Amino acid sequence: MSARFYDGRSARAQDARAAMDGDVLRIEADGREVAWPLQDLTVEIEADQARVSSRKDRDARLVLPVGDWSPMIGDRLAERAKSRRRREWWLIGGLTAAAAGVVLFVTVGVPALSGPVARATPVSMEQRMGDNFNAQVSAIFPACEDAAGQRTLAALGDRIAAEADTPFDIRVRAVDAPMVNAFALPGGYILVTDDLIREAKTPDELAAVIAHEVAHVEKRHVMQSVWRNFGVGMLLDLIVGGGTGAGQQAVILAGQASELSYSRSSELEADARGQTLLHAGGMSSLGMAPFFERMAAGESHDEMSEAAEFLATHPDSRRRAGAARAAQRTGRSALTATEWSAVRGLCKVEESENPVDRLKRRFGISDDAARPDKSDQVRPDGQ
């Protein structure tokens, strides 16, 4: 059929003949033939004219009446559009399946693998990681300065850890932190906040908390949590193409107390093992259930106003309290009255001082420094 062809090298229109040869548009003009594959064609309809071009020869174009173009092309472009839509749907389906696989791996695969990986982690590697985490956390939560009380607390940790099957040197210390919490870091570091010590009613309650954290170290729950955070972070790096530091950030966050959370099964395992460690050392385990019950019920609301921090990383307290009460045994007190008094005196803090004031005092921030400087501000009267 007759058409006009512009070769893209000049503005002159050339008389041309065009015909479809299978999936190829063949154009004869000025004594030469041009072949454009169907998949490369783009078509623009303007009034009664069809302007046809090829993605591989964008400057050239074929112009012919729509009435001639439509019968010639037939249903080929429609079929091509359908094929393209099918490919798009396959792509969408594939991406959806991949996303579902990622979610499944993060929610099921990573937690399942974190246990074996944690147990296979070399002790020296965990120790180095723990040293690094300990330095970071210590910059935020400094150790209490009462040396005698710290020695007493550390000795209690040593007696409990002596019954544990762990290659790590368990080191327990009290830290000045405005929260009710105790947490273990990789490598055997166990930190107990001064607020938790004050919330404990008896030495046996404090010993139960320490025994619980020693069990976390022994069972490698700490490294399991670190690898779980690390695995998710590295997976995010892979998804977004890397270079974001998400994996590194996950490891850093894992070193913070609030991020070292464990599964419910790990918590229950640490409770049971903690009681076993106390029994093996001849100590009473009667303090575990009452402490958890107060955490869960908040019987003394004024004193337990900060217990949410403990509950956030130690979930399901009522169930754990019931299990602890069923397995508890009598034994000697964890500390003498004199030792308990020394531990209770750690990190002396004014009871009326709120957490914000404590942090400001720790980092040397005065009220004047926190208040904006108004010396350069313009007064409403313009002076």
Textual characterization of the structure:
The chain has a seven-stranded antiparallel β-sheet with strand order 4-3-2-1-7-6-5, covered by helices on one side. A three-stranded mixed β-sheet has the order 8-10-9, sandwiched between helices. It contains 15 helices and ten strands. A hairpin with a 4-residue loop joins strand 9 and strand 10 (189-193). Helix 6 crosses helix 9 (264-280) and helix 6 (203-218) crosses helix 10. Mean pLDDT is 78; it is low at 238-244, 246-260, 299-313 and 374-383. The radius of gyration is 36 Å and the shape is rod-shaped. It has 383 residues and is α+β, with helices and mostly antiparallel strands. The termini are far apart. The chain has three domains: 2-74; 75-120; 123-359, no CATH class.
Uncertain segments: 238-244, 246-260, 299-313, 374-383
Number of discrete helical segments: 15
What is the total domain count?
3
Q: Tell me the major beta sheet.
A: 7 strands, antiparallel
Mean pLDDT: 78
Strand content: 15-25%
- The shape, in one word, is rod-shaped
Widest β-sheet, arrangement of strands: 4-3-2-1-7-6-5
Q: What is the count of β-strands?
A: 10
